Amino acid sequence: MKKITIKSAKKDELSWINSKYNEVNFVASTFENEYIVIASVDNEKAGIGRLVRIDNGHIELGGIYVFPNFRGLGVAEHIVKNLCNENPFLHTTIWCLPFEKLSEFYAKFGFKNCSDTKVPEKIATKLEWCNSKSNYDEKVVLLCKTR
């Protein structure tokens, strides 16, 4: 059985992290106001994810990216579980903008549809950007969970 480990990213890994995000047209990380993790399978880098502080009451869980050779091993579950459990921010609402087909996956961690909740402007703008025809071929949905 393959061993999956999660570690907090260091600032000097930011260039590599952003090169991976660039591969899938994800927004780059800036490190400030972010908690970024790197997943490894048997000591080989297998995926990344992050929490981004939006303001004093909101953070965004995103940038969950499992590299193609490591899909189907449970890497994404380890990343999301770590981000939710080790969240260093004292915020009350965690927002998530996954592809629609992943809604059930995020529901396992307590995320639910939040289209009827007051959405921070930064999240609403990003959702609109994600769903514009020129960015992703798949629909992105709005989910959230409160601590």
From TrEMBL:
SUPFAM superfamilies: Acyl-CoA N-acyltransferases (Nat) (SSF55729). InterPro entries: Acyl_CoA_acyltransferase, GNAT_dom. GO terms for molecular function: acyltransferase activity, transferring groups other than amino-acyl groups. It comes from the Bacteria. Gene3D superfamilies: 3.40.630.30. Residues 1-136 form the N-acetyltransferase domain. This is N-acetyltransferase domain-containing protein. It comes from Cellulophaga baltica 18.
